[in-house]
Amino acid sequence: MSKTLKIYIAVLVFMFAIILLADRDRQKPIDWRPTYSVNDKIPYGLYVFDKEINGFFKDHKVERISLVTPYEYLDSQYDEDTLIENYKIKGNFINISEENTIDDQSIKEIFYFVSHGNNAFLSMKTFPRYLLDSLKIEVNSNFQNSGNTIVWLANKKFKDKKYNLPQPIDDYFSKIDTASTTVLGYQDTKSNKNVNYIKVAYRQGYFYLHTDPLAFTNFHLLKGKNYQYAEGVLSCLPKGDIFWYTKGQNNERISTSPLRYILSQPALKSALYLSLLGIVIFIIFNAKRKQRIVPILKPLSNLTVDFTKTIGNLYYQAGDHDNIIDKKIIYFLEKIRTDYLIDTTKLDDHFIKKLHHKTGKDISDIQELVFLINEHRKSYHGSLEEDLIRINNAIEKILH
Fold this sequence. Notes:
Layout: H1 3-24, H2 47-56, E1 62-65, H3 70-76, E2 78-79, E3 86-87, E4 91-96, H4 104-115, E5 119-123, H5 129-135, E6 138-141, E7 149-153, E8 162-165, E9 171-175, E10 181-188, E11 193-202, E12 205-210, H6 218-221, H7 226-235, E13 241-245, H8 260-264, H9 266-286, H10 303-317, H11 321-340, H12 349-359, H13 363-378, H14 385-399
Parallel strand pairs: 1-13, 4-5, 4-13, 5-12
Antiparallel strand pairs: 2-3, 6-9, 7-8, 7-10, 10-11, 11-12
């Protein structure tokens, strides 16, 4: 190992150590994502609720549905015997999430479950369209950007207890079917008072719909006495076993990697990692040995430029200024035709304006050059060295 390489490695190790020391005491930023995951201890996770749910529903079984959809679970609990045709389980299906995570087939199964004398509690900001249309309700948002939200329950037992959620909660029920719906709770923002919790009758059971799922997150359950609001909301549910749908709230993630199948098979995964390790080792041990010597190639000398300079010097020393000026003019006009596609037959005002627009050069410089060229073409006496210098300088202003 060369001395230079050792110095580079030492510098890198030193810089890495400085970075570690600088970040050691830095406070980890708070993750405010509304994950509603039962494993997340971040503000908007459901870790606390998951630990306390058995206390909310004392003397009742709490079953978490995390591996299958509601349809798969409830359908498996249905007894198809013609004499029974009912569910083997009785109680309350609940789901708490930021957005709707229940598929359409499962929503229809939940309706069937409720119709057999059970109940469903859904706390979310975006409800399934099939549910809203079937129950004749609408959810709206007033898009508040700042301020707190006051929430309370309509039950006389809780009427005087109001709770302050230190953030705007925009969603509320803007339309309900009063014939089958009971208002259970309200929220109050800067704008006005809105309904945020309702009970909707459906055949032999009820739907309990709540638009403020943030009330069940870690941040709110641990802030003051806000946990009492969550208790009050859940106390409205009839007594019975709880079937909590948590699929998608346990940090499950479906991999989008094109290698997901290979990584899901232990043998293929081991082969992939072994191949990558072998490639790295091959690169490390063969990088220096296999490098070919790059030959030094001298750049070709520009003989055309030297030849042109020689011819130019001959004309200049011979004092043939007219010839040099003619060739300068020919070269200039050819350059204009090739680069700017301008007709050079007549060097008049039209030509001057066109060249000015295409080159962006000062119009007075262009006028001066055109004047000198036209004067040279009209002249019958020989040109002097001063004429050559003037035309050359005028051309250089336009071309450079």
